[in-house]
Design brief:
Blueprint: E1 2-3, E2 12-15, E3 18-28, E4 36-43, E5 49-55, E6 59-60, E7 66-76, E8 79-84, E9 90-94, H1 95-98, E10 110-116, E11 119-124, E12 128-136, E13 149-154, E14 159-163, E15 171-175, E16 180-184
Antiparallel strand pairs: 1-6, 2-3, 3-4, 4-5, 7-8, 7-10, 8-9, 10-11, 12-13, 12-15, 13-14, 15-16
Length: 185
């Protein structure tokens, strides 16, 4: 159990059989009446956001999440197969369970899988990945680093905006959180 006075951004709680992550909180002490905590909560399973008010000191169950490091070994039909790096057990996840970050997932990549009980809540990729550009328009003489950007398709199928001087076959670093080009490798 966790007190509403201990809420901080990132804290996970259980409400109505769902896991919620505290996004914002505000302790309010009105001149009349008792204090309360106004929060904005994000559902970890489906992404919905609600605003909820708790009495100051009210206790709610804290969600116990388990994080394990796994390696993406191969893709089997529509499922992605991950191997636990400690027990060598395999876990199969669908693209919908992984979410939109599936576009940067490549074989051999180590990820963190967050579980609540037996349910997989999210797959955390590294903050940046190095991928090869497989398709982009050729660079033209006179293109500069500050000139602009063009779309490029990388080896996992994701499309990223890159500077004009990047050509096919180059390896680039991409920020997986913001889908932006970070530099050449």
């Amino acid at each position: 159990m966790i007190s509403s006075n201990d809420f901080r951004p990132g804290v996970t709680i259980e409400l109505d059989n769902y896991v919620w992550r505290v996004v914002e909180f505000l302790h309010v002490k009105p001149g009349k009446g008792s204090a309360f905590v106004r929060t904005k909560l994000k559902n970890v399973q489906n992404g919905s956001v609600i605003e909820r008010t708790f009495r100051a000191g009210e206790t709610v169950p804290q969600a116990t999440l388990e994080k394990s490091t796994m390696q993406h070994t191969y893709k089997e039909a529509e499922n992605f197969v991950f191997m636990d790096m400690e027990s060598y057990e395999e876990t199969r996840l669908s693209a919908s369970q992984i979410g939109e970050r599936v576009k940067y997932l490549k074989e051999g990549m180590e990820v963190n899988i967050v579980r609540w009980g037996e349910q997989v809540l999210e797959v955390e990729l590294p903050n940046s990945v190095v991928l090869e550009v497989v398709q982009t328009d050729p660079g033209v003489k006179g293109d500069t680093a500050t000139g602009g950007s063009k779309p490029a398709k990388v080896e996992t199928g994701a499309q990223v905006m890159v500077p004009l001087f990047i050509s096919q076959g180059e390896r680039i670093r991409i920020d997986t959180r913001t889908d932006t080009y970070l530099g050449r490798e």
